[in-house]
Design brief:
38% of the residues lie in helices and 18% in strands. By secondary structure, it is an alpha/beta fold. The chain is elongated and about 70 Å long.
Length: 311
């Protein structure tokens, strides 16, 4: 149940309960925790979520917010003022055309990851017998990557792992919510290869994708507080002296047979370490081919795709 229920809001309250007054009041209430350029869109999202009606419908019918709805908006506004992400408050994140459940146990899915999925999808379509492909997502979090892939390409068989039992619980909830079947496993990639034992034991996958932790701890103080204070740090940060920790492990396991010959690997990366990830791939034996760097919509190097040599 959403944590908004069962709690009373706090004043001050809007002067009236019409659209304009409630909107201005909520913008003011959240002002300390939400950047100015984001407030308008966040307010509209909150008003629609609480009222259950779109802005056009509210304006057309001169909608008045009941006291119970204003009470909920007051709670939301207070939490936003503390910097809590709106996705956690509403327990919902829009990702790749899907509405996913999220809470503070998992990272909030980012638009950059949608870009990785789009690029990965094009590579998967190049594989022979793509309809029978088995794809592995490492560090699945909310399950956004495998679920989006399943939604785009229903014939794929998706597997996903995460070391966090809480994250796996959220991911399974999203799999059920969206009707996108994924096999999940709680395992630590740094200790063992995913799906190496048990009911769904798989020796080799046709493709592997991952958005692992990649932010050095030294960057913590320069990051937005709403990220550092509310999102799971274990899914964000890596040791300062080994920022490629997860990439080296994933690439090693792929080399050792986790990824089939000719299979594709897709990785989301820190913009400062993309070239280092490429260097790791180029230094490995067997060789990796068709290595490609993908730039995000902000023009930053963000993703690396590579194919393991067939020879």
């Amino acid at each position: 149940m959403n944590r908004i229920g069962g709690v009373r809001g706090k004043g001050p309250w809007p002067s009236t309960n019409d659209e304009i007054a409630v909107r201005k009041w909520l913008e003011s209430k959240m002002s300390k925790g939400v950047e100015l350029e984001e407030r308008h869109s966040v307010v509209l999202l909150c008003l629609e979520w609480v009222s259950g009606k779109g802005r056009g419908e509210r304006l057309m019918n001169s909608y008045k917010f009941p006291e119970s709805k204003i009470d909920k908006l007051a709670i939301i506004g207070d939490r936003l003022a503390l910097g809590e992400p709106i996705q956690y408050i509403l327990e919902e994140a829009h990702f790749d055309g899907l509405d996913l459940y999220v809470d503070s146990r998992v990272l909030i899915p980012r638009p950059e990851t949608e870009e990785l999925i789009s690029a990965f999808e094009q590579k998967l379509k190049l594989l022979t017998g793509v309809s029978k492909c088995r794809v592995l997502d490492i560090g699945t979090g909310s399950g956004c990557i495998p679920i989006a892939l399943k939604h785009r390409m229903p014939n794929l068989t998706l597997f996903a792992s995460d070391f966090s039992e809480d994250a796996i619980e959220v991911a399974k909830k999203n799999s059920t919510k969206t009707g996108c079947d994924v096999f999940f496993e709680c395992s630590d990639i740094l200790k063992d290869a995913p799906f190496n034992r048990g009911e769904h034991k798989i020796k080799r996958f046709d493709a592997v994708i991952s958005n692992p932790p990649y932010i050095p701890h030294c960057e913590l103080n320069s990051m937005e507080r709403r990220v550092v204070d509310f999102e799971p740090n274990s899914a964000l940060f890596v040791p300062d002296d080994d920022p490629l920790l997860f990439y080296k492990r994933i690439i090693y396991l792929c080399d050792e047979g986790m990824l089939k010959k000719g299979g594709w690997l897709a990785l989301e990366c820190h913009e400062d370490f993309v070239n280092d990830v490429v260097n790791v791939l180029e230094s490995r034996n067997p060789n990796w081919i068709n290595i490609e760097i993908i730039f995000d919509l902000q023009g930053k190097p963000r993703h690396v795709l590579a194919q393991i040599d067939l020879t």
